[in-house]
Design goal:
heterodimer, A: 207 residues, alpha+beta, three-stranded antiparallel β-sheet, two-stranded antiparallel ribbon, elongated, B: 222 residues, mainly alpha, 11 helices, 43% helix
């Protein structure tokens, strides 16, 4: 009788992934899944019957739930007093206008910049929409006779490369960070040096 | 046998009902008064880094609002002027005044003056200045009589019902487009005549300008 009820328990769905009951063969070899099952140890029987292991549903931490709620309510109360003390207003926000505003700049209205994206055969004329000097959308330049405002998938997707985290964000020389001025100086010197021999033995390596 | 309850408990149901009603009324009334923008926002007057008197510049000198807030007609955002706008005049007028030290410093260094924001709709509200000032809604409707203020304060509640009051009756709240920045302008000295003129103009303007004062939620909460 007892074993029948146990077998019923095994068929119940459970929170724990219990191996589905294998149909035991009527005759022949009996299979077992662990040494405990083979020995039919009482610990194993208990483990099989209980859904959760011992102690899983008990909160034995010395900080009791009651204590936790007490502490948290006290801290919320203090937080509320702090808000009241600050005048019960939404936080103060600052408006920071330019010192010298660029001519023609209007905050809140996008600016459009005409540019081009080089391709192997030439370039695609583009118009870049930009909010607060942050480019947000690339379209073809409708005023350019080369494209009449059309773009290709590469030009459309190239906006993403501007926000690529792998994009170089500093100047380096031999792996060390250098200042922008120094980098430009170095490049100017290189340009001067090779201007003498009309660029012989110069090669650019680009990723 | 002595009474289990003392005699005053006969009054208890009455006390409970009346007390409960009084408490509920005062709680609702208190929330109504103290927890709405009419109380929490109106009158907010923070101290600004530079004591800029609108009364002097607008009322006495007659500057137009759009001399400084020049983007109000083209952008959703009405800009606070940059220091170079101030310096257009103040490189001649009061050019060594200590009150303007921060402006000169900002102009020289490019570091912004940290003005304290007063009028702010919540982030979940979209408000476009240009569409309002180009359709006959005056600055004074939402900002109050800025031209009379020495230091700007929050004059109107800018609550949701404040917006909707106007959006429900746009014809009563528009004025000719060339009078938008004349904050103390009135239709007529005679209030009856003024009301008639206002209604007549408003009805025509709403039709001609195709004013779509939407009351749809997504007009502002977009």
């Amino acid at each position: 009788m007892e074993s029948e009820r146990l077998a019923e328990l095994l068929r119940l769905s459970s929170m724990k992934t219990i191996p589905p009951p294998c149909p035991e063969p009527e005759s022949g070899q009996k299979y077992w899944r662990s040494l405990d099952q083979l020995a039919d140890a009482p610990e194993f029987r208990q483990w099989l019957e209980r859904e959760f292991p011992d102690g899983a549903s008990e909160f034995t931490d010395p900080v009791s739930r009651r204590k936790f709620v007490q502490v948290m309510s006290a801290s919320f109360l203090l937080g509320g007093l702090g808000v009241l003390g600050s005048g019960c207003r939404r936080p103060e926000e600052k408006i920071l206008p330019f010192g010298k505003m660029p001519e023609g700049y209007v905050h809140g209205v996008p600016q459009f910049f005409a540019t081009a994206m080089p391709t192997r055969g030439g370039a695609i004329p583009l118009l870049v929409k930009s909010h607060e000097n942050r480019p947000v959308k690339i379209e073809g330049n409708p005023d350019h006779p080369d494209s009449n405002g059309s773009t290709d998938t590469f030009a459309q997707a190239s906006i993403l490369s501007l926000y690529d985290p792998d994009r170089a964000q500093r100047y380096t020389q031999g792996g060390n960070t250098i200042s922008k001025e120094k980098a430009l100086d170095t490049l100017t010197n290189v340009a001067k040096e090779f201007a003498l021999n009309r660029g012989a033995k110069v090669a650019f390596v680009m990723e | 046998m002595p009474a289990i309850f003392p005699k005053w408990t006969n009054q208890l149901p009455f006390i409970l009902v009346v007390g409960g009603l009084l408490t509920a009324t005062s709680v609702i009334g208190g929330l109504w008064y103290y927890f709405t923008p009419k109380y929490t926002r109106v009158g907010y007057q923070p101290i600004q880094p530079v004591a800029f008197p609108h009364s002097v510049h607008v009322d006495q000198l007659g500057l137009d609002c759009r001399y400084c807030h020049n983007a109000v007609e083209t952008s959703w955002y009405s800009n606070v002027p940059s220091a170079n706008t101030c310096m257009n005049c103040h490189n001649q007028v009061l050019k060594d005044d200590p009150k303007l030290a921060l402006v000169r410093e900002s102009y020289a260094s490019g570091k912004p003056i940290p003005w304290v924001q007063i009028h702010k709709v919540p982030d979940y509200v979209y408000f476009n200045h240009s569409v309002h000032v180009n359709r006959g809604v005056s600055c004074v409707k939402c900002h109050g009589e800025i031209n009379k203020m020495d230091e700007v304060y929050h004059a109107k509640p800018l609550s949701m019902t404040f917006c909707l009051d106007c959006h429900r009756n746009p014809e009563l709240n528009v004025r000719p487009n060339d009078k938008i920045t004349q904050l103390d302008w009135n239709w007529d000295a005679d209030p009856h005549k003024a009301a008639d003129m206002k209604l007549k103009f408003g009805q025509e303007a709403v039709k001609d300008w195709k004013v779509n004062a939407s009351q749809n939620c997504s007009a502002c909460h977009r």
